[in-house]
Amino acid sequence: MLAAAVLVGTVATAGTAQADSCYTWNRTLSQGASGADVTQLQIRVAGYPGYGAVLAIDGQYGPATEAAVKRFQSAYGLSADGVAGPDTFSKIYQLQDADCSPAHFSFGELNRCNSTWGGGNVSAATAKENAKRAMWRLEALRHALGDKPITVTSGFRSKACNDAVGGASGSRHLYGDAADLGSGPHSLCTLAKRARYHGFNGILGPGYPGHNDHTHLDHRSSRYWSASRCGI
Ligand SMILES: [Zn+2]
């Protein structure tokens, strides 16, 4: 756990703006705002777009961002006004580690292939950024399912790593935005079904060829969901 989370728990002044090792917001954000701080907020609430939706990470605080902020606030027992102010940022600080990954997922977990994030279909920096964004959506999924551990069995893959496991040539694992989830404590179908609410355009699970032992989630550009044994 991160120092910030300990601090929040100890001081219990949710309204206090505080420096955070990853990122600190310096103003309250609401609909109509734009800028890099909106982008940073969107990354962290992108797991709350509503069923079948994907939140655009575009730095523009429009109605979809407001709705995602409301869902995030509701999920964590905050006043759901759709305005990102001190209480919302305090919760985010509590959830984020110094390296900007969410509290319950790590870059190492999302890359068991190499330490450079290189060799995929995008630059290393893009692959790592994509993995960070995937982790925030996974954090939302994890929270929605009762904050029980979720195991990522495969994340980013270089072309060599992807070939070694027989991955598809256009696999989203090559872009860093895919995560394969193992079963326990949740069933693979529970994971696949719930993922539909948390911003994943790609969902492949039991019943889809090669996916009876994991549920695959990714951030492809248009929706493709298939897990026939789960009714998806
Ligand atoms: Zn996969």
From TrEMBL:
InterPro entries: Peptidase_M15A_C, Peptidoglycan-bd-like, PGBD-like_sf, PGBDSf, Zn_M74/Hedgehog-like. Transmembrane segments: none annotated. Residues 1-19 form the signal peptide. It holds the Pfam family PG_binding_1. Residues 34-91 form the Peptidoglycan binding-like domain. Keywords: Signal. Residues 103-218 form the Peptidase M15A C-terminal domain. It comes from the Bacteria. SUPFAM superfamilies: Hedgehog/DD-peptidase, PGBD-like. This is Peptidase M15. It comes from Streptomyces boncukensis. The lineage of its organism: Bacteria, Bacillati, Actinomycetota, Actinomycetes, Kitasatosporales.
